[in-house]
Amino acid sequence: MTDTSAPGHVISPDVIRFERNLPGPINRVWAYVTDGEMRGKWFASGDWDLRVGGRTELNFDHAQLSPIKEPPPPGFDGKGHQSVGEILAIDPPRLVTITFDGGSEVTFELAERGDEVLLSITHRKIANRAAMLSYSGGWHTHLAILEAHAAGRTPPPFWSTWTGLKDQYETLIP
Questions:
Q1: CA distance 88 to 96
Q2: Average pLDDT, stretch 133-147?
């Protein structure tokens, strides 16, 4: 398995990419990305109309991503939020690109690597450094939770993990 601490790679001032190897098969990992119930275990639940132009719904509830409960950090109410977007590109079970908060775009790419699947997440059109820091810590945390679920381990709590990683990205992102 890939080291959970592997940081995202800043491709440009508005693009960051993360890669993680997960236990296969590819259809299992595809379900973790596209099936609302499976995605809700590590990222955000919600229905996706799996076609170009199809509606995507993301229902974020970070407190429910781990059985380890903790309060949200200052500035967050812990009530979660919803984001609605659309599918820009899809090639099951290898690629799906969606619109995301603030006009950005996220591409999920899957590639078989023996018994594992390489999941690459590329977040583009990030508005500014503050958003880059938030998204970077967020994706890194969500992927740590996904890795734990995929391996049958208890996922880490979202908020304290995100806060620590966001601080680390302060030094990594120019």
A1: 8
A2: 95
